[in-house]
Design brief:
By secondary structure, the protein is α/β, with parallel strands linked by helices. It contains 16 helices and 12 strands. The chain has 2 domains: 157 residues, Rossmann fold, CATH 3.40.50; 204 residues, RNA polymerase sigma factor, region 2, helix turn helix motif (Rna Polymerase Sigma Factor, Chain: A), CATH 1.10.1740.10. The chain is 45% helix and 15% strand. Bound molecules: nicotinamide-adenine-dinucleotide and magnesium ion.
Length: 408
């Protein structure tokens, strides 16, 4: 179990919490900045300081975000190997803040393991977040983990690193935060994890309709505002497949003790069944600021910018079984969680490439899952790969996926 949920939280509490937000310009990153801004109002005993913030390409947004903070970050990172010359007028804006400007993926690793950093918010999308997330874990930080792909690719490696360093890996993903909160509330070991899924924009679509799905319809998520990659993952339900694998590694629960149910309102974020068959659920409006904040302040609960429920209106909370015939991508999560080893790295890489091709208008929506299954079935499974083998297979699976659609 890599979540140190049985032990006490870190007690090396400092009055100023330095937070490194890796992926600050994204959906989770900007929500984190909002949470930190509000924490400085409701938590006067502590100061929350965004000491490092990274963006990949959007230098303008990074400069805007950094400039809008009460205190500028000590360092801002442009992880896409740009240089000062590429920054244009944003360079002057960033320089005026007095922050150090750093470039390239190595700067992410350096910020994640910096001695002065207390909490690393891992909010980069995809496998690109792996090295910095792992560096934070190895440095024994509190890691608020949004970047689920790191666990999908390298669950056993992260798990071992966590045990060695004593890092606190706290989930930001709303389902896993819900499960964590349910386990805390029950103070008991879980028997089954029941992940909820919104069902995405195609919940009621036929396979024929999905075959013709446009990019615009796939990006129109009914309940969550998220970055494009996870939005497409939600439409295929591969997001839920990745979350099954994430839950397996985070909570040390076998695939056969994890279930998925569809809950279109996205209010019940997940449930846990205990030994006596009692089920505990966590509910809140669909707003990522709550799980982000809980990962930062755990075990404390503080006022959060998430709106309260309007309980004067009728509540309509429905649960329905997940349909793996229409959403075959979901099955991949259970298969990969059960197989372990190299399977996660291969599924993740194939999916990232396929989503990229779909976003570029080069393949059909239903090709995403078909391509993932083909690449997974073409790979020779290894049960105990080291990190460099996982990264090799990541590259191999990307090439295979592209070849399958004639883009190699
Ligand atoms: P996003 O696309 O909005 O933001 C991604 C961030 O990563 C940006 O800051 C971008 O600059 C950075 N980035 C992109 N490519 C990079 C690269 N190659 N190297 C370094 N940085 C790079 O994505 P998001 O929706 O915020 O999702 C971020 C992570 O959080 C994903 O792993 C996602 O699965 C997870 N997550 C998101 C949500 C959500 O509500 N958005 C919910 C649960 C989990
Ligand atoms: Mg989720």
């Amino acid at each position: 179990m890599i979540l140190n949920q049985d032990g006490p939280p870190h007690d090396d509490h400092r009055a100023c919490q330095n937070v490194a937000v890796l992926g600050a310009t994204g959906s989770i990153g900007t929500a984190t900045i909002d949470v930190v801004r509000q924490l400085n109002q409701v938590d006067p005993e502590n100061r929350w300081h965004i000491s490092a913030a990274s963006g990949h390409r959007n230098t303008q947004l990074l400069a805007e975000l950094a400039g809008g903070l009460d205190q500028p970050p000590d360092r801002v990172i442009l992880s896409n190997n740009v240089t000062n010359d590429d920054l244009g007028s944003d360079e002057a804006r960033l320089r005026a803040l007095g922050s150090r400007i750093e470039f390239g993926p190595e700067a992410l690793v350096s910020a994640a393991s910096d001695e002065s950093v207390d909490v690393v918010v891992a909010a980069i999308v995809g496998r690109a977040g792996l090295e910095s997330t792992l560096a934070a874990v190895e440095a024994g930080k509190r890691v608020a983990l949004a970047n689920k792909e790191t666990l999908v690719v390298a669950g056993p490696v992260v798990s071992r690193a966590c045990q060695q360093s004593g890092a606190e890996l706290l989930p930001v993903d709303s389902e896993h935060s819900a499960i964590f909160q349910c386990i805390q509330a029950a103070a008991s070991k879980p028997k089954k994890l029941i992940l909820t899924a919104s069902g995405g924009p195609f919940r009621n679509w036929t396979p024929e309709q999905m075959d013709e799905a446009t990019l615009e319809s796939a990006l129109a998520h009914p309940t969550w505002q998220m970055g494009p990659k996870i939005t497409i993952d939600s439409a295929t339900m591969i997001n839920k497949a990745l979350e099954v694998i994430e839950a397996h590694w985070l909570f040390g629960i076998p695939a056969e003790s994890i279930e998925v149910v569809v809950h279109p309102q996205s209010i019940i974020h997940s449930m846990v069944e205990f030994e006596d068959s009692s089920v505990i659920a966590q509910l809140s409006p669909p707003d990522m600021r709550l799980p982000i904040q809980y990962a930062l302040t755990y075990p404390r609960r503080l006022p959060c910018p998430t709106p309260e429920f309007d309980r004067k209106q009728p509540w309509n909370l429905t649960l329905e079984p997940a349909d793996t015939t229409r959403f075959p991508g979901l099955e991949l999560g259970f298969e990969v969680a059960a197989a372990g080893g190299t399977a996660g790295a291969v599924l993740n890489a194939a999916n990232e490439e396929a989503v990229g091709l779909f976003l570029a208008g080069k393949i059909r929506f239903t090709d995403i899952v078909k391509g993932c299954r083909d690449v997974l079935e073409n790979h020779t499974h290894e049960s105990n790969p080291p990190l460099n083998r996982l990264l090799e297979l990541d590259r191999w699976a990307r090439g295979e996926l592209k070849k399958r659609f004639g883009f190699a």
